[in-house]
From TrEMBL:
<dbReference type="GO" id="GO:0008721">
    <property type="term" value="F:D-serine ammonia-lyase activity"/>
</dbReference>
<protein>
    <recommendedName>
        <fullName>D-serine dehydratase-like domain-containing protein</fullName>
    </recommendedName>
</protein>
<dbReference type="Pfam" id="PF14031">
    <property type="entry name" value="D-ser_dehydrat"/>
</dbReference>
<feature type="region of interest" description="Disordered">
    <location>
        <begin position="1"/>
        <end position="24"/>
    </location>
</feature>
<dbReference type="InterPro" id="IPR042208">
    <property type="entry name" value="D-ser_dehydrat-like_sf"/>
</dbReference>
<dbReference type="InterPro" id="IPR051466">
    <property type="entry name" value="D-amino_acid_metab_enzyme"/>
</dbReference>
<feature type="domain" description="D-serine dehydratase-like">
    <location>
        <begin position="34"/>
        <end position="132"/>
    </location>
</feature>
<dbReference type="GO" id="GO:0036088">
    <property type="term" value="P:D-serine catabolic process"/>
</dbReference>
<dbReference type="InterPro" id="IPR026956">
    <property type="entry name" value="D-ser_dehydrat-like_dom"/>
</dbReference>
Length: 147
């Protein structure tokens, strides 16, 4: 784990959990027609050129949609991807092996991950925040669940 104590602004703004949802729970955010999963940067591993986020297989789903990685971080021009998943965590790295932009991934910062298989990722969450122009939450959807 990194002992860095950077206080830079998060990459993406955090969305407060909707009333009735679990505090601190991950949520999906739909911008236009794209679905994003918001995740928090938990740790830096400069020696491996990787970062750890709190979005794993239960948030992004382990169906890669036929792509060799599990999702792309929005705002980095396709350069940052989710390399590996465990149940609760994702490991982020660069697609081309270039150095990680550490100042843009502060510990505690929130990132937007575009999952490769958005349908499978979206069904993992209890709330969906619909975000309009200017990043304003316009609606909160609670999808039907169960069989």
């Amino acid at each position: 784990m990194s002992t860095s104590s950077t206080s830079a602004e998060p990459v993406a703004r955090s969305v407060e959990p909707a009333s009735g949802s679990t505090s601190g729970a991950l949520s999906t955010e739909c911008v236009g027609s794209a679905c994003h999963v918001l995740a928090t940067v938990l740790s830096h591993y400069p020696d491996r050129n990787e970062a750890l986020v709190n979005a794993g297989g239960t948030a992004l789903h382990k169906d890669s949609g036929g792509v060799e990685h599990w999702g792309e971080l929005r705002g980095f021009g396709g350069r940052l991807i989710v390399l590996r998943l465990s149940q609760e965590h994702g490991v982020v790295g660069t697609l081309d092996g270039s150095p990680m932009p550490w100042t843009e991934l502060p510990l505690g910062g929130v990132v937007r991950i575009v999952p490769n298989h958005s349908c499978m990722a979206a069904c993992q969450h209890q709330t969906h925040h619909v975000v309009g122009e200017g990043g304003v939450v316009e609606d909160v959807w609670r999808p039907a669940a169960g069989w």
